[in-house]
Amino acid sequence: MEHSFTILNNILILTLKGDLIGENNGPELVNLVNDQLHDNITRCAVDLSGVRYMNSSGIGVLITILTKFRNQEGEMILVKPSEKIEKLLLITKLNNIFSIVDSKEEAIELLKAL
Fold it and tell me: Domain 2-112 in CATH: superfamily?
């Protein structure tokens, strides 16, 4: 899996591509989030539009990241999950835990309002 990030309006924009398999990429993503939280970045948009597959460890990584932001009174929003990932979030009822939007712009507007 590939990932990239930018900071825009004090919001971490994390873009993921490929397969989100937690044991391979999880520690690296969590460390990235920890670094941003250390720099007082407490809001995050995670672009999942390029994620083809996610296993239970990948779900665990997203939950860990969400928890870290919420523990700092921040928030994380998922952006445009693929149809397959959206079904997975629906089946696991995680769509009730995560905020999910259709565009980065929408995520940024919601996060700026917090």
Answer: STAS domain (3.30.750.24)
pLDDT digits (tens, 9 = 90+) for 82-105: 999 999 999 999 999 999 999 999
What is the enclosing helix (H) or strand (E) of 53? Answer: strand 43-54
Q: What is the pLDDT of residues 15-44, one digit of tens each?
A: 999 999 877 788 999 999 999 999 999 999
Long-range contacts of 66-73 (CB under 8 A, 24+ apart): 66/97, 66/98, 68/30, 68/33, 68/34, 68/37, 69/33, 69/37, 69/42, 69/43, 69/44, 72/37, 72/42, 73/42
